[in-house]
Amino acid sequence: MPNSASPSDLKLRLGTRRSPLALAQAQEARDRLCAAHGWNEDQVELVPVMASGDKIQDRPLADIGGKALWTKELDAWLAEGRIDVAVHSLKDVETERPSELTVGAILPRADVRDVLLGAPSIGAIAHGATVGTSSPRRAAQMLNARPDLKVIGFRGNVATRMAKLAAGEADVTLLAAAGLERLGETGVGAPLDVSEWPPAASQGAIGLECRNDDEATLVMLAPLDDADTRAQITAERAFLLALGGTCHSPVAAHATGGEDGVTLTAILFSPDGVSKVSGVASFAAGDSSAPAMLAAKLLGEAPSSVTAVFGGAG
After folding, report:
1. Sheet harboring 130-132: ordered strands across?
2. What DSSP line would sit under 103-138, residue for residue?
3. How many helices (H) does the chain have, and how many strands (E)?
4. Which secondary structure element, helix H or strand E, spans residue 176, and what is its range?
5. Most buried residue, 27, 41, 114, 220, by most Cβ within 10 Å?
6. Active-site amino acid positions
7. Of all residues in the chain, what percent carry a pLDDT higher than 70?
8. Which helix (H) or strand (E) segment is 81 a member of?
9. Are 266 and 251 in contact (CB under 8 A)?
């Protein structure tokens, strides 16, 4: 994306994936930076980077490298100094990150819910219908609630998946409410209650990552950091890290509250949705031991059909 500012006027270069949703998230980050610092829009450059995950659309992410396919190019550009900040959907960022990088700001969290497209409710889906999703969590949740349904792989950006649904490649699909809202696609489906259908860890949260020795950039990002969202995301990611899950691991994790205290609800599933184990913990913001204890408790209670898909790299 071109930038018209002179070198002396340019404040930050934001790296982003090229998908429409990623670009919308980068635009939100730019708008918040400009509002916080009184900058003109052309003082923040958006730098689109092609991610491996966007290049490969015919196979599940878990089969070709997992979440690193969304981050490795942006990581390299940060390390090389070609961008100052990488804008991430934190749901897509692996729990173990390069030691030289840090999340300088987490923007206020958007709607965490999943949205069902193609039916008004889970119960209203036709018997034996086909669910299009490449998310192990969504597949397991759906099969747990409706074992009569069939799950097929469904890759692509939001528009691609909506087009596949419209073309009849599946009867229903699931998308994140936050992504739909950021693309202006509201009212297109039925949002699912988080008490019955908890989301993926970090769903709805945008993180701004930079080099941890880049003090000037960290100062610029600091006003954008939302303390309550950071407390929630920190808890959810600590839980995932302790689980040792992979992209094959069906897990839902949702923290509420904020800097005054966090409550974390989590569910682990077997891939076929037959088995699940759930738990809740409340603790102080920033406490990484409590999410780890909840992870250990659930793994200790879970049957082998669940534990078999945990214990790998995050």
Report:
1. 150-152, 130-132, 172-176, 114-117, 190-191
2. EEEEPPP----EEEESSSSSTTSPTT-EEE---HHH
3. 11, 13
4. strand 172-176
5. 114
6. 92
7. 90
8. none
9. yes
211-236 burial, b for 16+ CB within 10 Å, e for fewer? Answer: beebeebbebbeebbbebbbbbbbbb
Beta strands at 12-17 and 85-89: parallel, antiparallel or unpaired: parallel
- Cβ atoms 224, 208 nearer than 8 A: yes
pLDDT per position as a tens digit, 185-238: 988 999 999 999 999 999 999 999 999 999 999 999 999 999 999 999 999 999
State how far the alpha carbon of 86 is from the alpha carbons of 102, 221, 242, 291, in Å.
10, 12, 25, 27
CA distance 154 to 157: 10
pLDDT tens for 92-139 read 898 889 999 999 999 999 999 999 999 999 999 999 999 999 999 999
How far is C-alpha 296 from the geometric centre of its chain's CA atoms? 23
| 156 Rama sector, left if φ>0, alpha if ψ -120 to 50, beta otherwise | left
What predicted TM-score, i.e. pTM, was given to this entire model? Answer: 0.90
The encoded tokens of residue 137 equal 């969590």
